[in-house]
Amino acid sequence: MAAPESGDGNNGAARMVTLISSDNTRFEVEAAAASLSQTLQLTILDGGGGGGDGIPLPNVDSATLSKVLEYCIKHAPAAANGGAPNATAVDRAELERFDNEFVNIDQSVLYSLIMAAHNLEIEGLQSLVAKKVADMIKGKSPMEIRRTLGFPDPTPEEQAEMNAHMLEYGWAYE
Amino acid sequence: MAPPRRAPPELTDKLVERVLLHIPPTDPAGLLRAALVCKRWGRLTFSRRFRSRYRDFHGGDAMVGLLCNLEDADGKYVSRFVPTPPPSGPPRADLRGWRALDARHGRVLLRDLVWGSYLDVWDPFTGERRQLTATPPIQDRWSWNAAVLCAQYDACDHLVCRGGPFLVVVLGANDAHSMSVCFYSSDTARWSTPRRLARLPEHGVDVVPPVLIGNALYFGIDLGSFTTSGPAAPDVDGVVEAAGGGELGEQSPPPVAGNEALEAVGEELEAGVDDDNLDADHDEDAPLRRDLAGDVRVVSPGEVSNRQERSQHCERPLLVRHQMVLQVLEKFKMMEEVHFEPWERMKTWAPGKCRFLTADRLAKQNLPHPANCPLCDREAKTVDHLLAGCVFARQFWVDTRVSSSTRSGLNLATALVMAGEETWLWSMAGAKDLSLLTGHDLVEVINYSYLRLAWSPRVAECGIHWIDNN
């Protein structure tokens, strides 16, 4: 294991950091991957998370964190290039394929991911899951959207209101 | 799959917005349905902040309204700007005595119908009018058309350039025999020397809004030729890449506002032709035959007078083409032959979408509604009026079909797409190279644009009404 190096996560041997999930599972990842999170980036730049310390993430459980890190590890090389145009079409297609499969998951996991991506401020992942949710509600009626997203059932009042609007805006439901 | 019965995720406003951003602009009903999910989603969807984000996220390709050239009750010409709801956009405006020739990149090109050929560039957001310092140096006062575009037509995202430098390009009959192109730059405030570029077509230049695709500006010519069985120049097919040949400079009429920059334009013009697209043969009648469908490369004066900055300017010279519309109209003629009726077609095309939220239906629900038709201000807003009775609607339908007996078919309405039509043309075509578009594609594009221009505002409007009421 590479020893933490003073503040510079970008040279030669990959620097590793340790992240600790809410249920106390430790994950060791390359600093470059963890740095996709804006929240973690500063801590890591300051040299945190190395050695035995670890960065505690009280809002993220281990199942979600492993999923998040899967994404980060896959996307870290592309992000490290800083959008440099040397990514080939093949690379991009591969990432796209990965993304598509990545969000093909159970809804409860997806929700956890949304929250985790939001808390950790991982821009790419936030977009990815938001797009997935948008796809999920595509073509659905408001009621179906509520069900899909697990909203509580509307009160009778709300239901009457929605029915009235559904009659009025029938064209939007076809 | 059974609907999940777990506790709802705590989606913050920010997260909901993120999700809503991913509903494509081509699916306004999707956005509306999302807005009806609950009050919070509705409030978010129609908040000014979200709309602004949504516009930015989707490349600023928002339409702010329609321009329509009408006759008012007294038979006077009026160019009417009808903003797309919500009312955060530019205000509605009636420009009496003016005709909108073109609109692009947030600028509207107006022609004075009372005093002659004066041109103004109008910004509907600020109301600012910039008068061109002179009338275009075109000899024939009747057979010409003009386009307005951002001076950085190729190098700008056109999101904030509205008040900035612009170009006006005029294609017109120069004398009895030829057409010329000339341009006006707001930087130099003068017209260039007209460049002769083609033999005058039989029916002249038509006042159809020009179309900018990539760096090529297309003008409609010779639309009257469709009284016969085909285009006036049957030997013309596709976009010919050659220009009129080397005689362009010599045969120009005396410059109206000549200066050293314009000579440089001449060089550019010929250099451009030599560079990449003129075939080897220079035989005598080739230019005449070809130039009916030719291109001319026009370099903006700003570019020439400021050579050291050229690299920052548009990379590609502006091409002026004047042939594409022929293909489009040929298609329209075919549709007419099968008794193409747009309203009928629309009913078939999207029966569900034909339930518009008109004032009578709003009134039934006690929802706020305008008393009169927002387009013509005259009659009650019922669906029949909106789609068939309204003077605007009638013109709209005329616009979408070109009668073989009416030369002026497409020229009544000018679309105003603030971020430039290029964006959605690209997405419509799904093609990497728009020059590969066929006439059929363009018909699709134009059909699409008119439908969208005319009807998508209704969707936004009803969303707003719902929110206002709650």
UniProtKB/TrEMBL annotation, chain A:
Belongs to the SKP1 family. It comes from Eleusine coracana subsp. coracana. One of its GO terms (biological process) is ubiquitin-dependent protein catabolic process. Pfam families: Skp1, Skp1_POZ. InterPro entries: SKP1, SKP1-like, SKP1-like_dim_sf, SKP1/BTB/POZ_sf, Skp1_comp_dimer, Skp1_comp_POZ. It comes from the Eukaryota. The keyword Electron transport does not apply. The keyword Acetylation does not apply. Involved in ubiquitination and subsequent proteasomal degradation of target proteins. Together with CUL1, RBX1 and a F-box protein, it forms a SCF E3 ubiquitin ligase complex. The functional specificity of this complex depends on the type of F-box protein. In the SCF complex, it serves as an adapter that links the F-box protein to CUL1. Pathway: Protein modification; protein ubiquitination. Part of a SCF (SKP1-cullin-F-box) protein ligase complex. Residues 124-163 form the SKP1 component dimerisation domain. This is SKP1-like protein. The gene is ga14711. Residues 16-75 form the SKP1 component POZ domain. Keywords: Ubl conjugation pathway.
TrEMBL record, chain B:
Residues 344-397 form the Reverse transcriptase zinc-binding domain. InterPro entries: F-box-like_dom_sf (IPR036047), F-box_dom (IPR001810), RVT-Znf (IPR026960). It comes from the Eukaryota. It comes from Eleusine coracana subsp. coracana. Residues 10-51 form the F-box domain. This is F-box domain-containing protein.
